[in-house]
Write a structure and sequence with these properties.
With about 1000 residues, this protein is mainly alpha-helical. The chain is built from 48 helices and 7 strands.
């Protein structure tokens, strides 16, 4: 239902039959809110939750004209009455959504124009970002015009969220965005950001969209699929009004109770569609006689009743959509009095409405579409050209803004003026880049490229040749995070470029192509691309292209664990960077070199290089280089065993306002360190607040941390779900920082589930994906230790089952894993040494002689590194070994320490394992609240087994079935089954095979 307009319209009705009483509509829309009580109540509940600090997004969906706007208008009115602050903006149907952030800017414009106090509190970094969209804030902003980077749009979004959060402290915020189906790409990206970032802000976002507009490939579909399944999102579908609700609507419009015949006729024609019902009455037919067959016909009836001047004004507004008096006067070809009269007529008849900021637009979008569809091609082209010329004149007078540029380009393209459209599209792309709307910029540039073969002298019009535009478009896709389009456009540019004639240009494009290939998970291909690019340049040439290629290659080699080669390439990049005086190249080269040096054990050298890279990145204002330096410095310190120092670096990054917003990877690393340090609550809070729309290696990295924490808590189903979600990404990535961790987590998950074959495959698959010459000792050592644990389980199980051959094979594989761990620990890095000690301890278990001292030494090494959970796992092994050796006091002490850590961390799986061991071996852990479900243990048997159950266990250990047990011990098969179930429970094992293994190890069976 449309927005209520206070004025009254009386329409001429068709002739009535004798005795008929005419119905006269007093207004177009009902002033009474009709129906939708349940939907309104749900939205009011969401607003109340927002006021209490639980932010959310609500989507109101329905067909055109079903009443979406009327519902949110009612919500807005009630929100204002309750003291909430209402911000609203509409998406505009202009081409492919070419007005960046249109509804967001509109919503915030009133805040800026009223110079609210909150604007005086803006931190400098936030003010700079907001000034990108709201130039009124630029007066006091510093650093405006910083170089664009991949995080620029994210920084803008963080600034917008900061503003909403701060405004919400004064009053709850209702942000309404109408017609989301017309949203531009940047606005859709902002919604994706809100969906993953809103948490405790006092903000409710309500967006309406036409469900009947969303065709299969509509760009809004993926966003809705992502957001509508989130717990903080809800979708409200509006159905047509019922007959009774329609009767209430007609009663208010007519000012009297309508007769049943009128209600029946209007309901039959409109099918409860409120806008259709309104238009049937507004057309002056009151339901009698032949009604318009479609809503379009009903709308056109009202338009055609207007004067020619008013209809001309409607045509201009239909093409321009939102126009002020000046633009209307310039295009409508009416003198001022005639224009005023035409506008008054259109407003009085409730076809045009005036916005709060003085723009004219149609009362409902369907009215605009009807008028626009009725235009002849020549009429529309002429109006587009006139509007483009009027907007050009305004830009010359007031300066070119992003919306003006987009509007000019749209109207020239729509008018078919291809030369002007090419020129205007490139200019609009310039403006879009300025507000970090990189997706729009890329689309505009690609549209300009399509026009190159259709116009004369395109390079003069564009100010650049085809390759330059393709290069810019590829960079825009890169900044927008669309690596697939970045690759395609870069290849298109290389296809038309004479590489031999312009090798430097070709080198720049190859580096852009390599970046896309890398982010698409094709690391080796990316390295080959940079190699080809370097070969294009004259040997020994000092050029920035060579320096950039070398620094990029050094980084990629570092990420693949090829530290020695990375250092050599980084040295070349540094020499060139110094010759060129290029500090950015030096910062990138030092970043790769420093990380590689730490990876090779030269920690102090590496940290010094990373600190210099950090300082250079800060001086140059390169936000991503600054973030990358912080990230690699903290990660390198952590991998070298200096976790406290790593946390200090992350604290520096968090306090560094010069770094702008904090990159998600910094937060993920913080969660990783919190997990390793035993601060699991902090890790959970960080991970729960992480973006849900991450992709590629970012999502892989995030899910690895989620899975690791879930594994620690004993949530094995959750860990498997996180891993499975990114398996497809994992198989295309060959960076040890991902493949090594993924293999280790999956192997431990499968091992705990008893599938040792799958666990072995996970380890081997990860090892196969490592470069044979990898220098990444930290990940290699971890994977080797996990492999040794898996094979120790396999050797133990094989001995329990009497399968000597399998036991020998498992032991041989253990020796290989230990040898690999020894090689990884050659540089004596503390984490690698701790993994080696763990692997060696597992070897003693594999040979059937578990050494408590070996497990205790490994646990102590992990304690020294401040990683309590890994230490507790090894103390469980130590306790098991001491039980087997008959050292019950030592076993109890080790088990108690493991149990204390498990309890503090809420590590449920580890708690259960320790408690199970304590119950089986009658260990007193000194728990104040022992687990009641473990039962009372008999004093006659350390496991609480009765003599009869010992007899049954003997036979189970020999592999006897229940039937064979019953025949041997002269009992029923069912009775034998009951005994076996009790034994499994007392031993706290899950299968007969595990029970047999316990019986052999604990000498309960011959």
């Amino acid at each position: 239902m449309a927005i209520v307009t206070p004025s009254v319209a009386v329409h001429t009705l068709p002739a009535l039959a004798p005795g008929d009483t005419p119905y006269v509509a007093r207004r177009v829309s009902s002033t009474t809110f009709v129906g939708r009580s349940q939907e309104l109540g749900e939205l009011e509940d969401a607003l109340a939750e927002a006021a209490g600090g639980r932010a959310s997004i609500a989507f109101v969906a329905g067909e055109s004209g079903v009443g979406k706007t009327r519902l949110v208008d009612e919500l807005a009115a009630r929100a204002r009455a309750s003291g909430a602050r209402v911000l609203s903006g509409d998406c505009v149907e202009l081409g492919e959504g070419e007005l960046p952030y249109a509804p967001i800017v509109t919503a915030l414009r009133t805040v800026v124009r009223s110079r609210e106090a909150v604007l005086d509190e803006l931190p400098p970094a936030v003010r700079v970002e907001l000034a990108t969209l709201l130039p009124e804030l630029a007066d006091d902003a510093r650093g405006q015009g910083a170089a664009a980077d991949a995080a620029a749009q994210s920084r803008l979004f963080e600034a917008l969220l900061w503003l909403l959060e701060r405004m919400g402290e004064d009053a709850p915020i209702l942000l309404v965005v109408d017609d989301l189906h017309w949203a531009d790409r940047a606005t859709r990206s902002f919604f994706a950001f809100l969906g993953r970032s809103l948490c405790r802000e006092r903000v409710l976002v309500v967006a309406t969209y036409r469900s009947d507009e969303l065709h299969r490939r509509h760009p809004l579909r993926p966003l809705l699929a992502e957001l509508e399944r989130e717990p903080r999102s809800r979708r409200i579908d509006l159905a047509p009004l019922t007959r009774d609700e329609l009767a209430l609507q007609l009663r208010d419009i007519l000012g009297e109770l309508p007769g049943h015949d009128l209600v029946d006729r209007v309901y039959a024609r409109s099918q409860g569609h409120p806008l259709f019902a309104e238009e049937l009455l507004a057309a002056g037919l009151d339901g009698r006689g032949a009604l318009p067959p479609t809503l379009r016909d009903a709308l056109m009836l009202r338009v055609e009743r207007l004067s020619p001047a008013a209809q001309q004004v409607l045509r201009v507004i239909a093409v321009g959509q939102r126009l002020d008096d000046e633009l209307l006067a310039a295009v409508a070809e009416l003198d001022r009095p005639a224009l005023n009269e035409a506008l008054r007529e259109a407003v009085t008849n409730h076809i045009v409405a005036v916005t709060a900021d003085g723009y004219y637009g149609f009362r409902h979008a369907l009215l605009r579409e009807v008028v626009d569809d009725d235009l002849l091609p020549g009429e529309r082209s002429a109006l587009d050209l006139a509007l483009a010329a009027a907007l050009e004149a305004r830009a010359e007078r007031d300066g070119m803004g992003v919306w003006l540029a987009a509007g000019i380009a749209h109207h020239y393209i729509s008018a078919g003026d291809q030369p002007a459209g090419l020129r205007a599209s490139v200019r609009a792309a310039d403006m879009a880049e300025g507000v970090h709307a990189y997706g729009q910029a890329a689309a505009l540039l690609e549209r300009a490229i399509e026009l190159f073969d259709r116009v004369a002298d395109p390079e003069a019009l564009a100010g650049a040749d085809r390759v330059a535009l393709l290069h810019r478009a590829a960079i825009a896709h890169q900044l927008d995070g669309d690596s697939a389009r970045q690759e395609a456009v870069a290849k298109a540019a290389l296809a038309v470029l004479d590489e031999g004639g312009d090798p430097r240009r070709a080198a720049r494009l190859h580096e852009l192509l390599a970046d896309a290939e890398w982010h698409l998970g094709r690391g080796e291909q990316a390295l080959q691309t940079t190699k080809r690019a370097l070969a294009l340049l004259p040997e020994g040439e000092v050029s920035r292209e060579r320096a950039v290629l070398l620094s990029g290659r050094a980084k990629r080699l570092m990420l693949r664990g090829l530290f020695t080669e990375s250092i050599a390439v980084a040295h070349e990049a540094l020499e060139l960077g110094d010759e060129l005086g290029d500090r950015t190249v030096r910062s990138r080269g030092l970043n790769a070199m420093g990380t590689s040096l730490v990876g090779l054990g030269r920690v102090d050298e590496g940290v010094a290089a990373l600190r210099e890279a950090l300082a250079l990145a800060d001086e140059d204002g390169g936000r991503w280089h600054l973030t990358s330096a912080y990230l690699n410095l903290a990660d390198s310190l952590y991998l070298s065993g200096r976790t406290r120092d790593a946390l200090t670096v992350l604290d520096e990054a968090a306090d560094d306002h010069r770094a702008g917003i904090k990159h998600p990877w910094l937060k993920i690393l913080r969660a990783e360190l919190a997990t390793e340090s035993g601060e699991w609550q902090e890790a959970a809070e960080i991970l729960d607040a992480m973006p849900r729309g991450m992709v590629g290696t970012g999502l892989l990295n995030l899910n690895l941390r989620r899975a690791e924490l879930a594994l620690g808590h004993g949530d094995h189903d959750g860990a498997r779900a996180w891993i499975d979600e990114v398996t497809g990404i994992g198989v295309t990535v060959d960076e040890p920082q991902f493949t090594g961790v993924l293999g280790a987590i999956r192997a431990e998950l499968e091992r705990r589930g008893g599938d040792l074959g799958a666990a072995r495959h996970a380890v081997q698959d990860a090892l196969d994906r490592f470069e044979t010459c990898t220098d990444d000792a930290a990940r290699l050592a971890r994977l080797s230790a996990v492999g040794a644990t898996v094979e120790a389980d396999a050797a133990q199980r094989a001995r329990d089952l009497g399968e000597g051959g399998d036991a020998a094979a498992a032991l041989a594989r253990v020796e290989i894993h230990v040898a690999r761990a020894e090689a990884a620990a050659e540089r004596m890095g503390p984490p690698e040494v701790a993994w080696l000690l763990s692997a060696r301890a597992e070897r003693t278990r594999a040979i059937g002689a578990p050494d408590p001292a070996a497990f205790a030494a490994a646990a102590a090494a992990w304690d020294e590194l401040g990683r309590p959970y890994t230490a507790a796992l090894l103390r469980l092994r130590e306790a098991e070994a001491r039980v087997e050796a008959g050292d019950r006091n030592g076993a109890a002490a080790a088990a108690a320490r493991a149990r204390e850590t498990a309890g503090r961390l809420r590590a449920r799986w580890l708690m259960a394992e320790v408690d199970g061991l304590a119950a089986r071996a009658r260990l007193d852990l000194g728990l104040e609240d022992p687990q009641p479900e473990l039962g009372v243990v008999s004093d006659d048997d350390p496991f609480g087994l009765t003599p009869r159950e010992r007899q049954v266990l003997e036979l189970v250990a020999q592999g006897a079935t229940n039937r064979e047990i019953g025949a041997t011990l002269y009992m029923a098969e069912k009775t034998a089954s009951v005994h076996v179930s009790r034994i499994l429970a007392k031993l706290d094992v899950r299968s007969r095979t595990e029970a047999a293994g316990v019986a052999h190890r604990m000498r309960l069976a011959g």
